[in-house]
Structures are given as C-alpha cells and as structure tokens.
Write a structure and sequence with these properties.
Largest sheet: 9 strands, mixed
Oligomer: single chain
Structural class: alpha+beta
Number of strands: 11
Radius of gyration: 24 Å
Strand content: 15-25%
Number of domains: 2
Number of helices: 15
Distance between the termini: 41 Å
Order of helices and strands: HHHHHEHEEEHEHEHEHEEHHHEHHE
Length: about 425
Amino acid sequence: MINIIEKVNERVNKVEKMKKYKKKNSFTRKRKLGFKNIIVGILTSAKHSLSIEIDKLISKIDTNGYVEYSKQAYSKARQNLKPEVFLDLNKTVLKDIYNKEYKTYKGYRVSAIDGSVIALPNTEYMKKKYGVYNENKVEYPAGKMSVRYDVLNKVILDQDIIGYKESERKSADKFIGNIKKGKRELVILDRGYPSVKLLKNMQEKEIKYIFRVSKSFLKEINEFTKGKEMDKDIVIEIDQTRISHNEIAKVKGKIVLYIRCVRIDLENIEEILITNLEREEITVEDLKYLYKKRWEIETNYNTMKNVLELENYTGETDIAVKQDFYATILLINISTILVKEAQEEIDKKKRKTKYKYKVNINVAVGIFKKELIDILLEEDKEIATIRYNKLIKKISKHIQPIRDGRKYNRPLNHIVKYGGRTNKRAL
C-alpha cells in the first residue's frame, strides 16, 4: 500500500511539470535547489538560522559536499514558487483521508470555524498590507488567520489570512462558499460569527450549523432569553430595513430564517445556541457535546504556533509568509494520518492499565518534521517505505494517558515576536 508521504511525493513530481505554480521562466534548468527541493526545504525547516537550514538541505541533496548555496540564492529561488502549490499537495492528503473510513457524528462531518491573531515579519510592507497590533505603544505587523477544522478527524479543511482589522466573518463566508450544497456538513461557530447573511447562505446551501450567540444578536433571540423555554423553534423575518442593516444586497422581499434556539449550561454559565438541526435527530445533550468539541480548533492553533512555530517565519516577503502558512497546514494534515496509523499500533497492544493511551501529538509532529526530509528525498521507494514504517513505530512509542474531564483555560490572543523579528533571515 502506498503511504501518504509517497503520494505527496508523486504529486510533487506531477506539479513540477505544471506552469501554474511557478513564476514565468523559472525552474527551467536543472539545479540543486530546483522546484522539488525548494518545496522540501520549506516543509522541513526547523526554524534555525537560514544558513543552517540551507546547509542541511544541500547536505541531503549533494552527499559529496561540492555544492554551496547562499541565503540570497535560496531566497531568490523560493520567490519563484507560488504558495498555492502547498494547497494543491494538501488536496492529495485530504483525498486520502476522506476516501477511507472517517469519523462522523450521526452521519455529519463536524467542523469548526475560528480565527487567531497571527504575528507577521516586522517590515513596513507587512504593516501596510495587513495592519498593526499595538503593545506598550509599539506597533507590530499582524494579521488574522482562520481555518475550518474537522474536529473529529483533526484535519484542516480550509484556511485564510486576512488583515488584522478585517472581520473574521470574511473568512467564514469564504469557507461556507467552498462547501457543496446537500453535503452532510455540520459547522460550529462561536459568538463573533453570527450574521443574517451567513445564516441565509447556510440555510440555502442546506448546511447544518451550531452558533453560540449573544442575547443582542437579534430581537427574536432576546425575546427567547426572557422566557423560560429551554428548546424552541422560532421563525425570523428580515424585512428590507433589516436586510440593509445586515449588508445583504440585491434581495427581493423578505428573508425568512427557521431557527431552533437552545439554552445550555457551560461551566455554570447559561449560553444560547442556535441551530437548524431537528431535535428528533440532535438532542440538547448532543448540541452541548458538539459545541464543546469546538475546543479542538484551539488545540490545533497551539500546534501550529507553538510546536511548528508558524510565526517564526523562514522569510519576510508576503510569498514566504504564505508559503510557511500553507506548508504548516499541509504538515498538520499529514501528521494526522501518521498519528492515526501510530495509534492503531498502540491499540493492537492490549494494556491492562488504569488509563487508555494515545499518541503524544506534539512529540509526533516534532519527530515527523525532523525525519520528513529523508523520506521525501529518498529516490529508492523501498528504502523510503522502510523509513516511513520506522517513523510510525517511533511515533507510537511516545504516548500519554487519556484522562477524561480535564479542563484548560483558553489562551489569550497574543503576538509572538521572536525577538521583534528585526533581523532578516530571508529576502
């Protein structure tokens, strides 16, 4: 059976022949730092100094040690690689995941949409393009990254970077637009996202949703909170005045939304959820369980920022930032497959212990990224497969007990500046 890294490798070889991921007249001659090797270099960077990263890559490519490359040459070469190539490779990974048996909840693929403030390289260009974050009267360039995350299968389905002052609803609208009508999709969103426009679009596309909302979101929601009912169906009619207020253009007549309002208790605090799921199919307890699963997206952001060090960029241009961002998404999704395979190895060993055990994901991602370069660059498929199998076994040795009921406080949005990022690593 072909493993996922081999499938990604095969796709790299195919897209190398495509012009759409290269700048015009680039990667036309065979060089040591060609199309594939630049991709491998970005994927396997350990966020050390750029010179160390280049030396590491060249040592794997040229075992005789005859070739030398400067930071400037590497930086120039990567500017010819369009970041979208990593999204193309990610489609290969997603296809592999969803062509096999995957987890659903009562037949629904369950995803959450959320955003996080992201630090950017400290350049004037980045400040102008994305905006700034103020801390102690000092301005740092920052943006907002958003993802749609499959909370049951731990996979990133969609991704976006926008300006710091832009609304995260912009990314949510984009993600909802990517979902095909009629698919059994359930999307969970938090308080900052509800809008008449988004509800209308999801209702029309037959996408199921769960929103946590404030009492002031709509007057009908506020009226529900004043009553005593725990679970109630309401019909919301939005006339032309409210349509204009909610920035929905070119709509004739009224918009009618059919919504179910539910009260739930979260950590001894009453919260209001709205959904279009029928109570005969999804109970209040189901809704409470599903909303709590939204926390998985926070864990994903922790891995992206603190384990893969997304904000410690390998370059300072917009292209380099997007390359790093999309490459991180790809790494997260590949590691999900590796962790699943390693977990199957663990489950085969029947342990008579107090707790069940699972793979330590943070350690797994670190091991995977360190050894990925050898597997990707290995030309002998048999040796590459042996290395892949050894990688799975190594990951399966790093486990931790599963303790139900643990609670973690949500970290505050913060900017990781990595020393202010005043020293350039790449052009």
